[in-house]
Write a structure and sequence with these properties.
binds NADP nicotinamide-adenine-dinucleotide phosphate, two-stranded parallel ribbon, Rossmann fold, UDP-galactose 4-epimerase, domain 1, 34% helix
């Protein structure tokens, strides 16, 4: 970890990952500024500097960052962020040669290849535009690292869970199990996936700050367990201490609807395994998660109830249409 008191810029800062990161950096004694469009800066802790701009407006981004120097810059957000956007930010912060830490994704790996995916697994466009943009972002930064213009670290998280999740995943199942609704499972629900807790990601990002071992490197950052889709739902039911009814359906049924709603979390209907090794992170940097999958779900469940999310109205109408098509 870099000595406290570093000047750090976090792109984003007010949502899920980037807000958890701001908190971790403040805890470690750094001087933190954020850059975003200014929609939720009321969420920021005190003493955080704020730069307001849309990162996709490259001329304005340059103007806002002109003459400001940072020791490190976290490029966290997906806006959707293209290689050109990452490049424009790098140009704007390049003076002084900061450490740039880029939040990429495990979805850069070619998921047609055998699991588990390590940092040496070939990357590819299995996940379409998202993978293409993230790979372009990684490559534009690593090219600058090689010329010595910037020091770069790439971080590849997988599915994240935790308070303020921008994806309706664990909360999706909380809603249904809490209300005694059946959970619809695509196919046999045996695809493997891997989740990491947002605070573990934030802590890992903060720990890498200025670490010379991490320069020019990419790391998978996620939890150390993998779980099937059904296993995840069953674990959530165990955490909630409630029964759950699973209703399997053929995902081809979704094609009958013009606009199918989400049926299994926001983005957990897969047709491949998604399993990653974190051996490099553990052995090279000594970083391990604090949360297990179960303890992370428990902490998020406590947050969900504390925020009163169990009281909010939820629209189950699409699932009711789908359930009506299934044999009993
Ligand atoms: N969630 C997951 O499961 C997961 C898994 C793997 C990787 N990731 C990666 O993790 C990163 C963080 O994801 P996230 O969901 O926590 O946050 P996010 O939605 O990517 O970012 C939200 C933050 O960015 C700001 N922002 C959004 N658009 C902006 C723009 N055009 N210009 C400037 N600021 C902008 C928002 O503030 P304003 O609205 O005020 O601008 C907010 O502070 C992403 O890169 C994502 O690809 C996420």
């Amino acid at each position: 970890m870099m000595a406290p008191g570093m000047r750090v810029l976090v792109v984003g800062g007010t949502e899920f990952v980037s807000l958890a990161l701001v908190r971790a950096l403040l805890r470690d004694g750094h001087a933190v500024s954020v850059l975003n469009r200014g929609r939720r800066n009321d969420r920021l802790p005190p003493n955080v500097g704020v730069l307001v701009t849309d990162r996709k407006d490259h001329a304005r981004l340059r103007a806002v960052l002109a003459g400001v120097r940072f020791d490190a810059v976290y490029d966290v957000i997906y806006a959707p962020t293209t290689g050109e956007d990452v490049s424009a930010l790098a140009d704007a912060v390049e003076a002084g040669g900061p450490h740039v830490l880029f939040v990429s994704t495990g979805r850069v790996y070619d998921h047609a290849l055998p699991i588990p995916y390590s940092e040496t697994t070939p990357r590819g466009y299995y996940w379409g535009e998202y993978a293409r943009h993230k790979i372009a972002g990684e490559d534009t930064l690593l090219a600058r690292h090689r010329t010595g213009a910037l020091s770069v670290t790439i971080v590849r998280p997988t599915h994240l869970l935790g308070p303020l999740n921008t994806r309706n995943n664990e909360t999706f199942f909380f809603d249904r199990i809490l209300q005694g609704r059946p959970v619809l499972v695509p196919g046999d629900g045996r695809w493997l996936r891997q989740f990491g807790h947002v605070e573990d990601l934030a802590d890992a990002l903060a720990a890498m700050l200025g670490d010379s071992r991490a320069l020019g490197q990419a790391y998978n950052v996620t939890g150390e367990e993998c779980v099937t889709q059904v296993g995840l739902v069953e674990l959530i039911a165990e955490v909630l201490d409630r029964p759950v009814e699973l209703r399997h359906f053929d995902p081809a049924l979704l094609k009958r609807f013009d606009k199918p709603g989400p049926v299994f979390g926001q983005n957990l209907v897969y047709d491949c395994h998604a399993v990653y090794t974190t051996a490099k992170l553990r052995t090279e940097l000594g970083i391990r998660p604090r949360y297990t999958l179960a303890s992370g779900l428990r902490q998020t469940w406590d947050w969900y109830r504390k925020e009163g999310l169990d009281q909010r109205p939820v629209d189950f109408s699409f699932e009711d249409q789908l359930l009506a098509l299934l044999p009993r």
